[in-house]
Design goal:
The chain is of the alpha/beta class. It is built from 22 helices and 27 strands. The strands form seven sheets. An eight-stranded parallel beta barrel has the order 3-4-5-8-9-10-11-12, surrounded by seven helices. The chain has a five-stranded parallel sheet with strand order 15-14-13-16-27, covered by helices on one side. Strands 18-25-19-20-21 form a five-stranded parallel sheet. α7 links the parallel β9 and β10. The structure holds flavin-adenine dinucleotide (FAD), NADP nicotinamide-adenine-dinucleotide phosphate and iron/sulfur cluster (SF4).
C-alpha cells in the first residue's frame, strides 16, 4: 500500500487493545435522514461502504434513538427491538467488507425532540422545540438508562464494533449534566457528581453488559456555549468518571444546538475549537478526538502532530469526499473535494426534514442513484462557462469518455465562486475551484480561458452546454444611473472605493455578503483569526467560564461604515438564507449596527442619497453610495445566434434559471447533465 509521508500522524493506526483502527480519522456522526426509513438502509449501506472503501479509520453512524421518547422527530430512526437488527447488518457488513470499523451513535434527543413524547431531567422547554418535555421520574430515568444499554446490545448483535454515546450538543445526557436545565434535587440532580451520574451509569452499565471488547465512544460536551453550562472543573471531573465507567474513547462536543454562537459555519476559523480538546489532554488516559472545522489532511495532521488530540473527527468533509483518507495517503490531497462549511445541503436539509446531500458532491447519500451510465461515449463537447455548473458538467462528461473543452471569458475558473471567496470567512470557496481544476485536468478536460465565446467558436462541436451564469438585475429606480450607484460586482472587486455610508438595495444572500464585506475591517479583526472570532462571539479563550461564555462579553469594534440593508418584502430580512447560517448573518450585522429595513419602496436616487417610503412615510438615506444587490437574470447572449445557426444546446445553472439559483443547484445540474449527455 502506498504510504504518503506527508501525513504520518493522520495515517498512524490506533490500537485500542482489543481492536486496531487503521488510522486516526473518525467519520463523525451526521444525521442523513436515511436512518429513519427501513427502505433507505441499502442506500445507507452504500453510503458508508464508500467511506470505508475510502479508508476512514472509524465511522460513526447518524444518531439512533434508544426508544421513542428519544426520537428526534416522530418515527425517526431507533434501535430498540431485535426485528430492527437485520437492516443494520446491511450497513455493518458493507463497512466490514471494506476493512472498516463502524460504531452506532445512540442519541436520545431529550427536550430537543420535535414531538410531544419528549422527556428531560426537568420540564423546561427548549428554545428550538415547540413541545415542553415531561420531567422524568426516578423510575423514568432508570428506563432511559436501560434503553441505552439495550440499544448498545442490539448494536452489537447487528455487527457494530461499538457505540457512541451522545453526551453533548444539548441532548438528553447533556441536559442532565448542565445546571441550566437540570433542576432536580434527587440523586440525578444538584451537585455536579449527581448531574453527571446519568451519563456515568449509561457508560458503566453498557460496559458491564457488553464486556471489554466493544468500543464505547463518549461524546463529552467540553464547551456548551450557553449560560449555566458546565465549568472546566466539572468537565475534567466528568472525563475521569467516564473513563472509570469504561469508555474507550472520548470525543469532543462543542456548542448546544440552542447556542447563538456559530461552531461549524464557514466563518468559523479552521480547527477553531481544537484547544478545548487539547486542554483535556493529560487529564485522562483515553484517546481524545478533536472536532469542528477540520477539513483538510494538513489541518488534521497539524492537530495530531502537535499532540492536541489522538484522533480527528470529520463528518461533513467525508460527505464532500468519500475518498478523503485514501487520497491523502496516496499523495493526492489536491484531488480532495473539500467541504466548504456552507451547510447548504447537509445541515440545512436536516433542519427542514430533507435527506442530506452535499453542495460540492451531489452524490452524497445518493450513491446508489447518481451513477454514470456504462455506455461508451466520445463526443466533442463544448461547455461554455466555467462556474460551478460548467465545471461539474465538464468533469463528469469527461470522466465518461467525452472530449470536453471548457470555455470562460474570464482568465480563471470558478465564475461567481471567485466573488463569493472574497467575502470575509468564505475563502473556503476557492477550495472548490482548486478541486475542479485538478479533477478536470486528470479527466482530460481542455480549458480555454480568457475567451468570450461567440457562435462561430462553437462550430464543430457535437454537443454544446451553456453554463454562462447570470448578469446582475438593474431595478427600474429613478436615478439608477447616478454616480452614487454601484453594482455588487463593483463593490466586491474594489471595496476600498466605497464610501462610509452605504445603502444596499436587496437583502438576499449577496446583499448580506456585501454588507459583511463592507464591514470587513471590524468583522475580521486583526491578527490571530481564532482570537478575533472568540472575541467577536464572546467565548472565553481559556475555556474556564461556565459554558465557555459566562460573564464574557463580545468585543465589537465600532463599524467601519454606516450601512442600511433594504428589501421591499415585509418579511424578516434574511428569511431566505440557510436555516443553520441565516441567524449568524443576522446577528453579525445587528452587532455591527447595520440598519435592516423591510417593506421599503425605492423612490429615487439623487445627490441627496436614496429616497425611500416606509409605512407611508418618506425619508432620505443620505448615503455616499447605493449598492444594487437586487438578484440576477440569466446570461443568454449566445442563444439567439445558436438558434439561428440551427444548433442544439443544453442549459444549466444560472443560464437555465437565475431565480433561486445557488451553487447547490448549479453543481447538481452540471453533474446530472454530465452523466447523461
Ligand atoms: P456562474 O458562476 O455565474 O458562471 C458563469 C460563467 O460563464 C462565468 O465565469 C462567465 O464568465 C462565463 N461566461 C458567460 N458568458 C460567456 C461567454 N459567452 N463565453 C465564455 N464564458 C462566458 N451560492 C451558494 O450556493 N452559496 C453561497 O454562499 C454563495 N455565495 C455567493 C456570494 C457572492 C458574493 C456571489 C456573487 C454569489 C454567491 N453564490 C453562492 C452564488 C453562486 O456563486 C452561483 O449560484 C453560482 O456561481 C452559479 O453558477 P453558474 O455556473 O450557473 O454560473
Ligand atoms: P436573492 O437571494 O434572490 O435576493 C435578491 C434580493 O433582491 C431580494 O432581497 C429581493 O428582495 C431584491 N429584489 C429582487 N428584485 C428586485 C427589484 N426589481 N428591485 C429591488 N429589489 C429587488 O438573490 P441574490 O442575493 O442575488 O443571491 C443569488 C443567489 O446566490 C441566491 O440564490 C443565494 O441563495 C445565493 N447566495 C447564497 C448565499 C448564502 O450564504 N447561502 C450567499 C450569497 C448568495 P425584495 O424583492 O423584497 O426587494
Ligand atoms: Fe460541507 Fe457544504 Fe457539503 Fe455540507 S453541503 S458537507 S457544509 S460542502
Amino acid at each position: 500500500m502506498d504510504q504518503n509521508l506527508e501525513y504520518p500522524h493522520l495515517l498512524e493506526p490506533l490500537d485500542l487493545g482489543f481492536t486496531r483502527l487503521r488510522n486516526r480519522v473518525l467519520m463523525g456522526s451526521i444525521h442523513t435522514g436515511l436512518e429513519d426509513r427501513k427502505k433507505d438502509f441499502p442506500k445507507l449501506a452504500e453510503y458508508f461502504r464508500q467511506r470505508a472503501e475510502g479508508e476512514v479509520g472509524l465511522i460513526v453512524t447518524g444518531g439512533f434513538a434508544p426508544n421513542i421518547r428519544g426520537w428526534l422527530t416522530p418515527f425517526g430512526g431507533t434501535l430498540m427491538s431485535s426485528w430492527q437488527v437485520p437492516r443494520h447488518k446491511l450497513v455493518t457488513s458493507a463497512v466490514h467488507a471494506e476493512g472498516g470499523h463502524i460504531c452506532m451513535q445512540i442519541l436520545h434527543s431529550g427536550r430537543y425532540g420535535y414531538h410531544p413524547l419528549q422527556v428531560a431531567p426537568s420540564a423546561i422547554r427548549s428554545p428550538i422545540s415547540k413541545f415542553t418535555p415531561k420531567g422524568l421520574s426516578a423510575k423514568g430515568v432508570e428506563k432511559q438508562i436501560n434503553a441505552y444499554v439495550r440499544a448498545a446490545s442490539l448494536a452489537r448483535d447487528a455487527g457494530y464494533d461499538g457505540v457512541e454515546v451522545m453526551g453533548s450538543e444539548g441532548y438528553l445526557i447533556n441536559e442532565f449534566i448542565a445546571p441550566r436545565v437540570n433542576k432536580r434535587d434527587d440523586e440525578w440532580g444538584g451537585s455536579a457528581e449527581k448531574r453527571m451520574r446519568f451519563a456515568v451509569e449509561i457508560v458503566r452499565r453498557t460496559r458491564a453488559a457488553l464486556g471489554p471488547d466493544f468500543i464505547i465512544i463518549y461524546r463529552l460536551s467540553m464547551l456548551d456555549l450557553v449560560p449555566d453550562g458546565s465549568n472546566w472543573e466539572e468537565i475534567v471531573q466528568q472525563a475521569h468518571a467516564i473513563e472509570a465507567a469504561g469508555a474507550s474513547i472520548i470525543n469532543t462536543g462543542v456548542g448546544w444546538h440552542e447556542a447563538r454562537i456559530p461552531t461549524i459555519a464557514t466563518m468559523v476559523p479552521r480547527a477553531a475549537f481544537v484547544d478545548v480538546t487539547a486542554k483535556l489532554k493529560g487529564e485522562t488516559t483515553l484517546p481524545l478526538i478533536a472536532v469542528n472545522r477540520i477539513n483538510t489532511p494538513a489541518v488534521a495532521e497539524d492537530i495530531l502532530a502537535s499532540g492536541k488530540a489522538d484522533m480527528v473527527s470529520m463528518a461533513r468533509p467525508l460527505l464532500a469526499d468519500a475518498h478523503f483518507v485514501q487520497k491523502a495517503r496516496a499523495g493526492k490531497a489536491a484531488m480532495i473535494n473539500t467541504c466548504i462549511a456552507c451547510n447548504q445541503a447537509c445541515l440545512d436539509h436536516v433542519f427542514v426534514g430533507k435527506s442530506v446531500s452535499c453542495l460540492v458532491n451531489p452524490r452524497a447519500c445518493e450513491e446508489t442513484e447518481i451513477n454514470s451510465e456504462a455506455t461508451k461515449v466520445a463526443d466533442n463537447i463544448a461547455v461554455v462557462g466555467a462556474g460551478p455548473a460548467g465545471m461539474a458538467c465538464a468533469l463528469e462528461s469527461a470522466k465518461r469518455g467525452h472530449k470536453v473543452t471548457l470555455f470562460d471569458a474570464a482568465d480563471r475558473l470558478g465564475g461567481q465562486f471567485n466573488l463569493a471567496a472574497k467575502i470575509p470567512g468564505k475563502d473556503e470557496f476557492l477550495e472548490t475551484i482548486r478541486y475542479f481544476d485538478n479533477a478536470m485536468r486528470a479527466a482530460g478536460v481542455q480549458q480555454q480561458l480568457g475567451l468570450r465565446v461567440n457562435v462561430d467558436d462553437l462550430a464543430g462541436f457535437d454537443q454544446i452546454v451553456l453554463a454562462t451564469g447570470v448578469v446582475p438585475r438593474t431595478p427600474p429606480i429613478t436615478g439608477i444611473k447616478h454616480s452614487k450607484v454601484l453594482s455588487y460586482l463593483d463593490v466586491i472587486n474594489n471595496p476600498e472605493a466605497v464610501g462610509d455610508s452605504v445603502a444596499i438595495i436587496g437583502a438576499g444572500g449577496i446583499g448580506f455578503d456585501v454588507a459583511e464585506l463592507l464591514l470587513v475591517d471590524t468583522i475580521n479583526g486583526a491578527g490571530n483569526e481564532k482570537e478575533a472570532f472568540f472575541k467577536e462571539w464572546g467565548i472565553d479563550p481559556q475555556f474556564n467560564a461556565r459554558g465557555g461564555v459566562e460573564n464574557i462579553k463580545p468585543e465589537i469594534a465600532d463599524p467601519k461604515r454606516k450601512l442600511w440593508l433594504l428589501q421591499r418584502k415585509n418579511s424578516k430580512l434574511g428569511k431566505g438564507l440557510g436555516k443553520t447560517t441565516g441567524w449568524v448573518h443576522r446577528i453579525s450585522l445587528r452587532k455591527h449596527k447595520v440598519e435592516m429595513l423591510a417593506g421599503v419602496e425605492y423612490l429615487k436616487i439623487d445627490d441627496q442619497g436614496l429616497h425611500i417610503r416606509r409605512d407611508d412615510k418618506e425619508e432620505i438615506l443620505a448615503v455616499e453610495h447605493v449598492v444594487i444587490c437586487a438578484g440576477q437574470l440569466p446570461q443568454r447572449e449566445l442563444e439567439e445566434g445558436l438558434i439561428a445557426a440551427d444548433k442544439l444546446f443544453f442549459r444549466i445553472g444560472g443560464a437555465e434559471k437565475a431565480g433561486e439559483l445557488d451553487a447547490k443547484r448549479a453543481i447538481r445540474e452540471g453533474t446530472l447533465l454530465g452523466l447523461r449527455i
